[in-house]
Amino acid sequence: MYFGLSCCRKFLAKQIRQDGGYSDETGDIPMKWALRIIGAIAGALAVGLLVLIFMGMGTDADRMQGSMVIHRAPADVWPWLYEGDKLTQWVSWLKDVQRDPGPPQVGRTGIWTMQDANNGGMLMKINGTVEAVEPNRRFAMRLAASGGFSGTSEYRLVDLGGGSTRLETDARYHFDIWMARLFAPLIMAQARKKAVMDQEHLRALLEAGK
What we know:
By secondary structure, the protein is an alpha+beta fold. It is built from 6 helices and 7 strands.
């Protein structure tokens, strides 16, 4: 670390001496060099913000899609998509699920309580309304967290035969806070990573015969 800083200092000293005005004895850096450094930092930040803005303007910037094969029949996977005691086993951060009793039906509602590990463990309530149901094939919900986000989440189960299922997921989210919308590409990247880990956990549970 010290060697790197020393080399950096020598490089700056050489450049500044060539610019006419550096004292090795005092270590003073002319104001114009300080302004150049500040300008470079500001420029890098501006470029980063522009990149985020353009990424956020992409057609699928707010979308998450995934697919994986689970070696269990669709009927075995189906209840793990909506039953509270099963959801809390594979969806990380999920602490509680309150939902209308019985199998899912269009119009029925539920509340997911999440403990947000990225926000100091703060509890977050997510309200869900069932939008589509095809038993053992398709399950879709509209989700909303007050002051946070709203969106849709859909699961499709494709019977591959031989006791195997392809689980396909498709979700879109809109963030209510402008700062979250600005950083949506980064937030969605982390959300995709979490979703993949959760679904891998689901597969492990199912294939272990849970």
